[in-house]
Structures are given as structure tokens and as C-alpha cells.
Amino acid sequence: MDLGLKGKTALVTAASRGFGKAVALQLAAEGARVAICARGENDLEEAAEDIRVSGKKFYGGAAGEVLARALDVTDDAAMAGFVADIEGRWGGIDLLLVNAGGPPAGTFSELDLNQWEAAYRLTLESAVRMCRLVMPGMMTRGWGRIVQITSVSVLQPVENLLLSSVMRPAVHALTRNLALEGGPHGVTVNSVAPGYHTTSAVERLIAKKVEQTGCTRDDVLAEWSAEIPLGRLGKPEELAALVLFLMSAGSGYITGQCIVSDGGWVKGTF
Ligand SMILES: NC(=O)c1ccc[n+]([C@@H]2O[C@H](COP(=O)([O-])OP(=O)(O)OC[C@H]3O[C@@H](n4cnc5c(N)ncnc54)[C@H](OP(=O)(O)O)[C@@H]3O)[C@@H](O)[C@H]2O)c1
Description:
Elements: E1 9-12, H1 18-29, E2 33-38, H2 41-59, E3 66-70, H3 76-90, E4 95-98, H4 113-141, E5 144-149, H5 162-182, E6 187-194, H6 200-213, H7 217-226, H8 236-247, E7 258-261
Parallel strand pairs: 1-2, 1-4, 2-3, 4-5, 5-6, 6-7
The structure holds NADP nicotinamide-adenine-dinucleotide phosphate.
């Protein structure tokens, strides 16, 4: 299936590992130019090279176009400078994946106000910032796709993930509202809500649970898998395939939605 992404310009934030990298690899494989960022330079450079190779396969030898910048998505000036550089080099951004690291685990009694503020800055404020920087250009040009990575915590509180369970629904509310403003200008805005997937973020959650309970990594995986009708954790490339569909030409009538990829973990009817 041709997703219609060849020659499009994409910004994928927090993309040196996990979901962001998986999305960037698939975008390059579809012939998009891809800009990525993350804080750590080593993983970022490695990811950029992998993405170039992914694009190279598409172009039959010519390297895929990749722009990588080490920055923190909570840094206003750095994000604005990166977007300006992408636009200066490639023109406007057509595709935006709004992604960041997740807020730390913790219960209400464990979390202090500084952690609440940091979670707001990382999860909601950074999403607002990225949309502010990119969406006006999309609206002026009359076409764009924005996808925000949230979590199943949009639909159901997740044990020990209070900050995510409070901040993510607000990110989806942003999606829902921006869809109203973007629609008349050809810009769709959607959220994807992953359940447990095999990324380094989940490995950190597993390590914390092992430390707290004294059980093994296999015990944690077995406990989580038992709650998932498909009986396993998802793969980052499975979530990426969903994101690519939402960015594709064929998804043009879907906006304001939160699409869940969780192997059936959420048990609500809607
Ligand atoms: N994996 C899951 O099962 C799952 C489920 C639901 C929701 N999520 C959410 O999905 C998002 C992505 O998770 P993931 O599993 O892909 O995580 P991951 O494997 O840990 O990757 C996170 C990526 O984000 C970058 N990053 C983190 N903080 C950043 C910041 N402040 N500025 C710029 N880049 C930053 C990391 O690089 P640096 O550390 O070098 O910056 C890395 O490239 C998170 O918000 C996570 O909570 C994940």
C-alpha cells in the first residue's frame, strides 16, 4: 500500500530509541525526510544512521535525508531553533510526531510538587510547544498530520503511574481541540494510546517493580501478559505502523481520535 509519504517532511521528537525511533525508521522507509531529536548524542547519532539506511533502501542507494539535533523537548529556544532549521533546509513540516519521555512512576503519597511540575512541562507543555511551532505552517499550507503519543492511561488509570494518568488525558484533550481548529485547514490531529510495548521505558518500569517486590523480570512479564488478551507485550514497530497510517494520505477523514494499541488491555466498552 502506498501511504503517500514520499517526499514529505517529518519531525519526530524523542526519537533516539523506542517509539520515536520506530516511527522515524518507517517514515524513512516510505521516502519521507526525517528530523529527529533527543537529549543523548550517542543514541541519537546511532538512530540517525539507522534511519539513513532505512531511507537508502527506499531510494535504492541514495541515503535517506535525516537531520538530528541533541536537545531537550522542554527547552523552548532549542525546539524553536530546530524547527526553524528544518524549515530553512526542507521547507515546511508536513508530519509531526509529538513524543517525549514519560513522567516517572509513583503514587500520590510518593510524588512531590516539583515532580508534578516537571511532569506538566515534559508531557503537556512540550506537546503544546511543538504544536504551536509546527501547526500554524501546516494550516497556512492547507495540509498536515499531527500524531501525539499518549498512553492507555488516557482511558484508564494505570497502577503506580499517577503522573501519566493525570497528564495524558490533558494531552488527548489538546488533540481533540486542535482537531477542531486544524480541520478547516486540512490538518488532522490524532492521539495514539499505547499499552505495554517492549521499549527501554518499559524495561525501566520492570526494573523498578523487580526492585520493589523482589520478583524476577520474567515474573513481571508473566503478570502483565496475563492481563493482555493477546498474551504479550507489543513491539514498537507495531505502534509505529499505526502512527504511519494516521500520517498517511488514506487517513484523511480521521481526526480528533485516540486510537489504542494495547493487545486488548483496556477493558472498557468504548
Ligand atoms: N513503551 C511503552 O510501553 C509505553 C506505553 C505507554 C506510553 N508510553 C510513552 O511513550 C513515550 C515514548 O516511550 P518509549 O517507550 O519509546 O521510551 P524510550 O524507549 O525510553 O525512548 C524515549 C526517547 O525519548 C527521548 N527523550 C526522553 N526525554 C526527552 C526529553 N526531555 N527531550 C528530548 N528527548 C527525550 C529519549 O532519549 P534521551 O533520553 O537521550 O533524551 C529516547 O529517545 C513516553 O512518553 C512513554 O511514557 C510508552
